[in-house]
Amino acid sequence: MRITIQDAQIAIEAGLHAAAERQVPSAVAVVDSGGNLLAFASHEDAMLAGRDLSIAKAYTALSLRRDTAALAESVLPGGPFFGLNTALPGKPLVTFSGGKPLILEIGGQVVGGVGASGGTLEDDEAVSAAAAHAVLELRARGGA
């Protein structure tokens, strides 16, 4: 099963809505299972760096199949994945909050990733969670 453009748009809308509720200008990105950008949107006054970071967070969550927040300590000196965040030239891996893999509840298939950036780590975590939840909830109900 693949993530569709419609799925990605639902995630983007939910993420931007969550960011607006938190009064945080943000950028939200969705990648498919191959790491290709499916959808992206940002508030007009979102930070420019946040736009690139949201895409990188989505890619990281997909490629490592875990929340980016879970990676922070593991890439520090002495951690099991020290240096991972700089290991792939041209494909930055972001190892702090704001990226979520899109994992289907039935079967555990990873169908994509979502990333959000623009606020604090807590803001980015909440925005990406809202985006991921919206599309996964729709899929669980048999939509899109």
TrEMBL record:
| UniProt-listed Pfam families | HbpS-like (PF03928)
Q: Which InterPro entries match?
A: GlcG_carb_metab_protein, PduO/GlcC-like, PduO/GlcC-like_sf
Highest taxon of the source? Bacteria
PANTHER family, per database record:
PROTEIN GLCG, SLR1406 PROTEIN
Protein name listed in UniProt = Uncharacterized protein GlcG (DUF336 family)
